[in-house]
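Hi all, posting the design record for the shared folder.

TITLE: backbone redesign
STEP: 1 of 1
STRUCTURE INPUT:
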């Protein structure tokens, strides 16, 4: 029997993303990391699902791993200048075969997926990229390694408007008719920038970006890239560099996704936690003052905790009247946590209604809300923060709160103390 609860919960979480993605343009760099046909087939199924949700897809095919395997089989190492592969005539012929095979394989998987899902969107490829020779740098002739001269944005947009999925590889002709091998990352970046895509998604062999202490990072901002770059494997460094260039060019968000993990694309795009690393100009999850249009979200967030006795019940009318005291953690319009600050007198404020979405309790939401409340209390000139809790005294103690007694509270708060709840009282000097 199918366990419906996880499926239903996942669909509920995905719903707002599905709605917001309609009509948006995603440029996706596909990795040719070695994997089973089943894995590749499932990824194509996921791409077809995104297209059925009215997402406009431009797919850029990388064949880096296949080229590496070909070079290794020859026993002759490829020459590189900086990070660019030098493409001689013999290698260019081999790359044409590799790219052609990759295109035919993908087209076969796409046709099967479309047939299974009763889709009708054509997969369109063509001369959407014009190349130029990379030339001689530092005395090194790059031969048939090229760079992007121009992206046919009008042509790509025309196909997207007609409902097609656009497929682009990294071989392109110059105006002279000469064929060049381009870096797939450059093709993806310049295509995403020219389209002003809503997302650039970069598949690769590393699951997530790592912090300096080795912990996985689900989100990065452009400001923190330089700090974490040295801790990354070369493949992840290449993707981070690509993401940084795209953000500078106006792309809103980049996602680094593991090519070998089944369902990684959908999990990354349709859940708050994601599966890889999202890179943005600014943090997407932010603490802000609550607004009246947050009421329904707050009620939904706090109701289970009120029913469990963790929070004091507040009616909609009371919450609306006190909305100015609340701060929320907002992630793409989804409220993941809340906290309120109630000044009790000139010196003391009370932290109340600290609530975190139970599906995201490990995401430091509570700590960030506490920091925001403390900052707001200081701005109001308060010197002491108190909290009354029945369940989490240790959590507050770990964050600098100390046990206190009822007489330590201002008189007006002592008068409202609920002896039936018998809450523990903790205070913190700001």
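Okay, here is what came back for every position:
SEQUENCE:
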């Amino acid at each position: 029997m199918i366990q419906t609860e996880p499926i239903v919960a996942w669909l509920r979480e995905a719903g707002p993303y599905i709605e917001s993605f309609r009509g948006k343009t995603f440029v996706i760099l596909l990795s040719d990391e070695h994997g089973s046909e089943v894995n590749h087939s499932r990824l194509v199924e996921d791409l077809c699902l995104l297209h059925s949700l009215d997402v406009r897809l431009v797919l850029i095919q990388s064949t880096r791993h296949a080229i590496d395997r070909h070079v290794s089989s020859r026993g002759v190492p490829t020459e590189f200048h900086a990070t660019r592969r030098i493409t001689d005539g013999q290698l260019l012929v081999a790359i044409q075969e590799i790219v052609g095979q990759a295109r035919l394989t993908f087209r076969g998987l796409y046709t099967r997926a479309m047939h299974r899902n009763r889709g009708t969107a054509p997969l369109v490829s063509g001369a959407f990229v014009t190349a130029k020779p990379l030339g001689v740098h530092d005395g090194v002739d790059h031969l048939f390694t090229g760079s992007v001269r121009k992206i046919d944005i009008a042509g790509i947009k025309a196909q997207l408007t007609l409902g097609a999925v656009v497929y682009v590889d990294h071989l392109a002709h110059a105006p002279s008719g000469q064929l060049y091998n381009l870096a797939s990352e450059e093709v993806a970046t310049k295509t995403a920038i020219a389209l002003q895509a809503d997302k650039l998604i970069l598949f690769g062999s590393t699951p997530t970006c790592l912090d300096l202490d080795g912990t996985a990072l689900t989100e990065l901002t452009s400001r923190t890239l330089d700090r974490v770059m040295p801790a990354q494997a070369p493949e992840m460094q290449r993707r981070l560099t690509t993401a940084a260039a795209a953000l500078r060019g106006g792309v809103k968000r980049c996602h680094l996704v593991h090519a070998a993990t089944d369902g990684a694309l959908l999990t990354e795009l349709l859940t708050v936690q994601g599966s890889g690393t999202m890179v943005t100009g600014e943090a997407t999850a932010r603490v802000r003052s609550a607004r009246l249009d947050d009421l329904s979200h707050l009620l939904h967030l706090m109701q289970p905790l009120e029913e469990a006795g963790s929070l004091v019940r507040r009616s909609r009318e009371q919450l609306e009247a006190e909305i100015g005291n609340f701060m929320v953690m907002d992630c793409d319009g989804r409220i993941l946590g809340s906290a309120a600050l109630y000044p009790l007198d000139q010196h003391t404020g009370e932290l109340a209604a600290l609530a975190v979405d139970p599906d995201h309790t490990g995401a430091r939401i509570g700590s960030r809300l506490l920091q925001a409340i403390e900052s707001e209390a200081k701005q109001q000139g308060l010197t002491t923060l108190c909290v009354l809790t029945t369940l989490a005294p240790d959590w507050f103690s770990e964050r600098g709160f100390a046990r206190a007694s009822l007489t330590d509270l201002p008189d007006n708060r002592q008068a409202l103390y609920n002896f039936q709840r018998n809450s523990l009282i903790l205070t913190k000097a700001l």
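COMMENT: The chain has two domains: 4-283, 286-429.
Let me know if anyone wants the other runs.
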